[in-house]
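Reopening this ticket.

The earlier resolution said the output was attached, but the attachment link was broken on my side. Pasting everything inline this time so it's all in one place.
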Amino acid sequence: MKEIKQIIHAYELACKKQQKAALATVVHVAGSSYRAPGARMLITEDGMLTGAISGGCLEGDALRKALMVMMQGKPLLTTYDTSDEEDAVIGIGLGCNGIIQVLIEPIIPEDVTNPIVLLQHIVQKRQAVVLVTFFSLQNKWSEQQGTRLLLKADKNFLRSNALLPSAIKDAENILEQKESIFIEYPNDGQPISAFYEYLPPPVSIIVAGAGNDVFPLVQIGEVLGWDITLVDGRPAYANTQRFPACRLIVADPESAFRELVIDDQTAVVLMTHNYNYDKALLKALIAMPVNYIGMLGPRKKLSRMLTEYEEEGTKVTEEQLSRVYSPVGLDIGAETAEEIALAVLTEIKAVFAGRSGVYLRSFTGKMHERKTEIISSNTN
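Inline output:
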C-alpha cells in the first residue's frame, strides 16, 4: 500500500507539471522473480520512476517502452524472460528464473476510471479491495488491456466501459476468497486474461504506550507503510510534538479501544511499562478478534495476569492465549530499543504472513509461494 501511495503522489506532481505518465504493472509471473504480480511503477515523460517492477534490471527497458506508450496512447504488454542469460536487454546473472509479463498503460487524465483514479480509491478508506487488470498474451498492443475494475469490500465498485460482463461477479468471488487469481476469457475468439488482485488493508499497529522506547518502533513501522495508532493515558507523552505522524488516543484502559476499528490486519503491542494498564488492556483485547497481541515483559508478567484473571472470574481460553505473544518479538538477540522494535515488527510480519521466521537457508519450501495458473473461463 505504501508503494501505491507513492505512485499517486508522483502522479499528482506530474499533473501539476503537465507531464504525461504511464503505469507499468507486473500482471503475471511464470517461475521466479524479484517482484510479484501487482508490483507497480509510474513513469513520467521526464524519465522519473516511482515504485519498482524488479530489482532494477527491467526498469530501464520499461522506461523506454513507456515513453512509446505515452506517445501512442495505447497499452502494451511486454514479456521479459529472466531465464535467458543471453538476453542483452535484461543482462546476465540476475538470480531470477522466470517469465515476467508487464503491462504498461498510458494514463489519460480525462478518463475518470484511469488506473491512477482506481488506485486513489483504494487508499481512501481502510478496507479490502479487488483490483482487476486485463492483459492479452496473444496481442501485446490490444486496446482491451488495462486496469479496469475496482471492487471494494463495501460492494461499491468503479469500472470502465470496456469490461467483460462476468468480471464483477468473478471479482465478488475473489473478495470472499481473499486470494489473487488469474482467469482467461474466450472473448469472441480473442482470448484475454485478467489478473484479479486481492489487496487487504495495510497492517494496522496499535501501540499501547508512548515512552521513548516506542520511537524506533513507530519509525520502522512508518518505513513499512503500516498504519500506526498510539494509546496512552498520559497526554504529556502521547502528543503531536513527540509523535507527529501517528494517530493518538489519550484514554484510560476501559475506553482506549472505543474509537478503533479492529480487523484481521490489526496487531496490538502493549508496552506501557504500567502493569495495571497493560493488564486492563489485555483483558479487553482477548475478547476481541485481534490476531496478534504482543506484550513487552518477562513470562512471569503474563503468568501473573492470567492467575489474577482467573481469581477475578475471567477464564482465558487456549484459543485466546494462542494470539498473545509474550515475551514479544522474535529471538534475534535484541537488546536496544531499536533492536527490540525490529524483533517485534518482524514477528508481526511473520504471524500475518503465516511464516515461522526461520533462517531462509534452512527453509525447504518455496520462499514466495504464488498462484500462477491462468484459469480458463467459459463466460464471455
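Reporter confirms the inline version is readable. The CA atoms of residues 230 and 248 lie 5 Å apart. The longest strand covers residues 21-31.
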